Amino acid sequence: MGSATTQARTATAEALASTSGVDLDVARELFAAVGAVSGSAQLSGALSDSSVPPAARAGLVSAVFGPSYRPQTVSLLSSAAQQRWSNAGEFIEGLEELAVQATSVAESADIESELFAFSRTVASNGELELALGGRLGDASAKSALVSTLLGGRTSAGTELIVSSLVGLARGRRVRALLRRAERIVADQRSRIVATVYTAVALNADQQTRLQNALSARYGSAITLNTVIDTSVLGGLRVQVADDVIDASVSARLADLRQRIAG
Questions:
Q1: Count of alpha carbons within 13 Å of 46, Cβ hemisphere only?
Q2: SS3 string of 187-210?
Q3: What 3-state class would DSSP assign to 117?
Q4: What average pLDDT does the chain have?
Q5: Radius of gyration of the chain (CA)
Q6: Which of 38, 59, 120, 257 is most buried as measured by Cβ atoms within 10 A of its Cβ?
Q7: Distance CA 4, CA 90 (A)
Q8: Does the pLDDT value for residue 258 go beyond 80?
Q9: pLDDT, tens digit, 9 for 90 and up, residues 49-88
Q10: Is residue 144 pLDDT above 90, yes or no?
Q11: Is the pLDDT score of 257 beyond 70?
């Protein structure tokens, strides 16, 4: 990712933070805009062309989206279009990130955990992953499948993110899209995601103590995602980004075997 895109993402996130009245309808329109822009090389090229004056790019946004989209949506799209992006592809990804962030602003539910749970479901079901992520099949049919699977079982925000990303996959792996969305939501909410691998489920008190310990270590609020893994045997293994804290029995046994062999 180029430095121009990094700055553009920061500016776009700041524009979202200063925009009032962002709800799920705005987020839904932002996802729809991602589909429109990604589906037109001419439009994505024009909106991400840094040689075109920012005011002209904002004017194009108003002309294309102004008649049918809410003012908040048009304002956010205009702000994104006026930034300097490294290329059209990164501009489209920036809009997609903006749509996920807007959903996080509009939805108070624990989207991170719901996205993680659904990603685990997809990972454990090859047929489902193929149905959602395969290059064949209509995007709207895939989105409808997500609605059937998640309707009433997750928050409306999570359903919107998953159905939209599946419909806008553009050849990307569904699990990777869900993990990226989870990170975006966590970052937007100033949280760190910790994945905990344990042989048995943690009770509420254990989860609280672990969250407090990790929060003190990393200096941020922590979202715990738990994976039941019988190979851990006992104890637990925690992964935060590239940082792994392995306090599992299996790790201690492996270390002991290595010491004996050495």
A1: 15
A2: HHCCEEEEEEEECCCCCHHHHHHH
A3: helix
A4: 90
A5: 21
A6: 38
A7: 10
A8: no
A9: 999 999 999 999 999 999 999 999 999 999 999 999 999 9
A10: no
A11: no
Q: Token pair of 132, please?
A: 């959602």
CA dist 163 and 245 (Å) reads 34
| DSSP secondary structure of 42-98 | HHHHHHH-TTS-HHHHHHHHHHHHTTTS-HHHHHHHHHHHTS--SSHHHHHHHHHHH
Report the pLDDT averaged over residues 161-187. 90
Contacts of 109 (CB under 8 A, 6+ apart): 154, 155, 157, 158
Between the ranges 26-40, 128-142, 196-210, where is the mean pLDDT highest?
26-40
The CB density around residue 151, as the number of other CB atoms within 10 Å, is 11
pLDDT at 201: 87
Q: How far is CA 140 from CA 61, 84, 163, 242, 251, in A?
A: 25, 32, 9, 35, 45
**Rounded CA separation 20/189 (Å):** 17
